[in-house]
Write a structure and sequence with these properties.
The complex is a heterodimer of chains A (about 325) and B (about 550). Chain A is α+β, with helices and mostly antiparallel strands and about 325 residues long. Helices cover about 30% and strands about 20% of the residues of chain A. A five-stranded mixed beta sheet of chain A has the order 3-2-1-5-8, covered by helices on one side. In chain A, strands 4-10-9-6-7 form a five-stranded mixed beta sheet. In chain A, strand 6 and strand 7 form a beta hairpin. By secondary structure, chain B is mainly alpha-helical. In chain B, about 60% of the residues are buried. The N terminus and C terminus of chain B are likely disordered. The two termini of chain B are about 45 Å apart. Chain B is globular, with a radius of gyration of 23 Å. The chains are: A alpha+beta (about 325), B mainly alpha (about 550). Chains A and B meet through helix 1, helix 2, strand 7 and strand 9 of A and helix 3, helix 5, helix 10, helix 11 and helix 12 of B.
């Protein structure tokens, strides 16, 4: 084998070895089946080759129903194993563990931007600690992209107008490819990056060193004031709007009788399309911020709202509009 | 038409000699001539699509982009996909072989609606020329999948013209399907009961159902893309309040069954080839026939397996995966039945049979990797990589084209009245099989390594497998060239074909080669089932040397 031709990708996440095991199971069954069929055909071709020009085949008599049923049911059983096994891996890959660190990923023609839980930002580079569950909340600023890390067997579409999530727990330090796997225009093949899996102490050191890439984005707290959210969404506001303190993660009732969990998608939707899901007891008076706020700013606001302490703890009366930043 | 019992079939002019001149072709209503018109047209599109594939493989021989800009590369693979899928693979077997053979096989004079049949060809040509025209004026860079919001808001190029071209060609497909279904229901010869129909006809019946039910959906979806580009109506682009995933649902609702439009007719050809070249009744006729219908029906319920990682719900993914597993079974049943047909047969390895065996080989790989892709826990790794590129080429190029070429070689004497060169046809079949596998098998490895599809440039560690793939494409290209040469050569210099050169059953072999305009000198009456090789053969008394 040529030294330059790998046959198998690195196995560097908890998911990777599970996907590989299932892959080798299906591969093994497939090879067995194929070899059996090809060998049978080859044997028939030799054994029953035409010996005279006017020869015909011999009739097969008897009931073949059992045979037909057998070669329907046996493959059905095998593909069902593949189905249930595959579904269990898939469900697991869709459910981030509770202790996962939350990262944000933005796809944009043609680059990846990553934001760390502490706020540090990178472009086309992604540093993560080893053995730590990492949850990605992803959105796109233009077309559909796909965040893929083959070494982790991780892949998820990144869409405009909504959040998709994925998670991984890297098991080996090293540097691996990030690809965009969804065709996204001219420089699709340049929408690549590197993910660096580091020892936890190295990651900590890395976090405090160097500068954040990708330009400054105002903090959620600043945006909350700058976009005038605070004129309505504070306990001391004059206009009537739901107070947001401590509401993240809770269920709220809507005017149409449905209930919805206040998560990242709902907060995002409420900023960009406020009249779609109005909370019970309120009027759809909020203006839309569609086109006036970037996806990254939306995420800053979401993080700010997520971290607001419950109203009781912060003291309901006269909570001054957060902070006095310039 | 009861009169002279010994009407000499040779006295009737063949459909080729009955009329001459361009008008006799361009205004013909003879299903056989329309089949030839399609044959010429799809061959041109195949050559165009093939040339683009050559350029793509040449570019991918090195990791850098050294032949084209990324923009040109993207337009190349987009046009390659659109031409090959909509203008070659989908019409290939149904519009050429189906058109020519279906009426003959059921003992009819023509299809139920001959003028509609000609209309279909003109719609196909208008659609094809529009799409080709868009290529000449710059082409498009959306990929053949037209994913929104890229196609609606971001893509450059002639998206509208191409979309309308595909829309128009879609009607050709719908009308052909309609024509086939009515013909099979209404035009069967006396005695041609449903379970005496050749399996080729059953496969085309199933295919026609998909063409009629599925094509309108993709036509609407593509029309909506055009409308959104023009008027920003906000169906797909979230910026205008649309949902980009809606497009994928509409697109794959047709485009997954479209794979069965390509493979089911090839499976129909397979059943004819395997029986004819083992001179034996097909094993499990009813199972093979109904498996086609089962594939056509369940095939409509599996489109979401293209969207496991699209943001569709996890539960939807699981349901689509389950249904995908079900659709694997009828395909497996067909392979088992063809294998069992060989048992105690009288097997002859003439060129069409070589293609049939090649079909089984590549279909095994294409089908089994399809099960892997349908498995949720594997797809999350190989989705949108070269693994899937390899898989669908094994099914659509490998299997469907093996079926098409096998059928073309089987019925070539019937269609043209000439025999082709036996030696060179075997060399061609072998080269195609070797070239195909050398091209596409390395792509499975590339895909599992993680190389994404539609990449103009790629990391250097993927180069070795890409070079191997490009080398295979060279062999494959030569392999496709050889039949073009000896088939064209046979038209002038080939030996005259007898009515039944293979000793095959089926009504098409009981009329002259090539058939007269009305297909049969006297309308046939069917008295036996399809593939009655063992029971009615003249060689019944032969003691087979077992």
């Amino acid at each position: 084998m040529l030294p330059n031709a790998p046959v198998f990708p690195p196995v560097s996440s908890t998911l990777a070895s599970k996907v590989d095991t299932l892959f080798f199971f299906t591969l093994g069954v497939s090879v067995l089946f194929s070899v059996a069929i090809v060998a049978t055909i080859a044997a028939f071709i030799v054994r029953y080759r035409r010996r005279r020009a006017d020869e015909t085949g011999q009739e097969i008599k008897g009931n073949t129903l059992l045979l037909e049923l057998a070669w329907s049911i046996v493959p059905l059983g095998l593909v069902m194993i593949s189905f249930f096994w595959g579904a269990s891996i898939f469900f697991e890959s869709a459910r981030p563990p509770a202790d996962a660190w939350s990262f944000h990923v933005y796809g944009k023609q043609w680059m990846w931007k990553v934001e760390h839980p502490e706020g540090k930002r990178e472009i086309n580079e992604f540093h993560v600690p080893v053995n730590q569950a990492v949850k990605l909340t992803m959105t796109s600023e233009d077309v559909i992209h796909n965040f893929s890390v083959p070494a982790f067997r991780l892949k998820m579409d990144v869409l405009p107008g909504r959040y998709s999530t994925a998670w991984f727990r890297a098991t080996k330090t090293g540097t691996y490819h990030i690809f965009c796997d969804q065709y996204c225009g001219v420089d699709h093949s340049k929408m690549v990056g590197k993910i660096h899996v580091m020892e936890p102490q190295d990651y900590k050191r890395w976090l405090v060193s160097g500068t954040s890439a990708g330009g400054a984005v105002a903090s959620g707290e600043e945006l909350f004031v700058a976009k005038a959210c605070n004129t309505c969404h504070r306990p001391d506001s004059s206009a009537r709007a739901p107070v947001l303190d401590g509401v993240f993660g809770k269920k709220v009732a809507l005017v149409d009788g449905r209930t919805v969990t206040v998560d990242e998608s709902y907060v995002r939707e409420s900023i960009l399309s406020p009249a779609t899901k109005v909370v019970q007891g309120y009027q759809p008076i909020m203006p839309t911020f569609q086109g006036q706020i970037s996806e990254e700013e939306v995420v800053q606001l979401i993080k700010y709202i997520r971290d607001l302490p419950p109203a009781a703890a912060s003291g309901a009366p006269v909570a001054a509009p957060a902070g006095g930043q310039p | 038409m009861t009169a002279p019992a010994t009407a000499a079939p040779t006295e009737l002019p063949s459909y080729l000699e009955a009329a001459h001149g361009p008008k006799s072709w361009l205004l013909t209503r003879d299903h056989k001539r329309i089949g030839i018109l399609y044959l010429v047209a799809i061959s041109v599109f195949f050559v165009l699509g093939g040339l683009m594939a050559v350029l793509i493989r040449a570019e991918l021989a090195t990791p850098q982009g050294d032949m084209f800009s990324s923009d040109v590369y993207n337009r190349l693979f987009t046009m390659h996909g659109i031409l090959m899928i909509f203008f070659f693979l989908i019409p290939s077997i149904p519009a050429v072989l189906g058109n020519f053979l279906l009426p003959v096989m059921i003992g009819a004079k023509d299809l139920a609606f001959p003028k509609l049949n000609l209309t279909s060809w003109y719609l196909y040509m208008i659609g094809g020329l529009m799409t080709f025209g868009s290529l000449l004026t710059g082409g498009i860079d959306t990929g053949w999948t037209f994913y929104t919001p890229m196609s609606t808001t971001f893509a450059q190029g002639q998206v509208l013209v191409t979309a309308v071209g595909i829309f128009v060609a879609g009607f050709s497909s719908i009308l052909t399907g309609l024509n086939f279904i009515v013909t099979i229901h209404r035009m069967r010869a006396p005695g041609m009961t449903w379970f005496r129909l050749p399996l080729f006809v059953w496969a085309h019946y199933a295919t026609s159902i998909i063409q009629i039910l599925g094509t309108p959906v993709v036509a609407i979806a593509i029309l909506l893309v055009g409308a959104e580009r023009l008027f920003h109506i906000g169906v797909f682009d979230p910026k205008y309040g649309g949902d980009p995933l809606l497009f994928q649902h509409l697109f794959w609702f047709y485009s997954h069954p479209a794979v069965y439009i390509m493979i089911l007719p090839a499976m129909g050809v397979m059943s004819e080839l395997v029986t004819a070249f083992s001179r034996k009744r097909v094993f499990g006729y009813h199972f093979v026939a109904f498996s086609s219908l089962f594939i056509a029906v369940i095939g409509f319920l599996v489109w979401g397996h293209h969207m496991y990682v699209s943001g569709q719900s996890v539960v939807a993914g699981a349901i689509f995966s389950f249904l995908t597993m079900l659709v694997a079974i009828p395909s497996a049943v067909k392979v088992f039945n063809w294998t069992a047909t060989l048992y105690k047969g009288s097997i002859s390895l003439q060129t069409p049979m070589l293609y049939a065996l090649g079909f089984i080989g590549v279909f095994l790989i294409g089908g089994l990797t399809g099960v892997m892709l349908g498995t949720l826990g594997i797809d999350i790794h190989v989705h949108d990589t070269y693994f899937i590129v390899a898989h669908f080429h094994y099914v659509m190029v490998g299997s469907a084209i093996m079926g098409y070429l096998g059928g073309l070689h089987f019925w070539w004497p019937k269609i043209t009245g000439r025999m082709y060169d036996e030696f060179w046809s075997k060399v061609g079949a072998l080269l195609i099989f070797v070239g195909f596998n050398t091209t596409f098998f390395p792509q499975f490895i590339l895909g599992y390594l993680g190389m994404p599809r539609r990449y103009h440039m790629y990391p250097a560690e993927f180069q070795t497998w890409n070079v191997l793939s490009s080398a295979g494409a060279t062999i494959l290209g030569v392999g496709y060239l050889i039949p073009v040469i000896y088939l064209l050569w046979s038209l002038k210099f080939g030996a005259k074909a007898p009515a039944n050169p293979w000793g095959a059953k089926g009504l098409e072999w009981q009329t002259a080669s090539p058939p007269p305009v009305e297909n049969f000198a006297t309308p046939p009456v069917v008295t036996e089932e399809a593939y009655a090789y063992e029971t009615s053969a003249p060689a019944k008394e032969v003691t087979v040397g077992v």
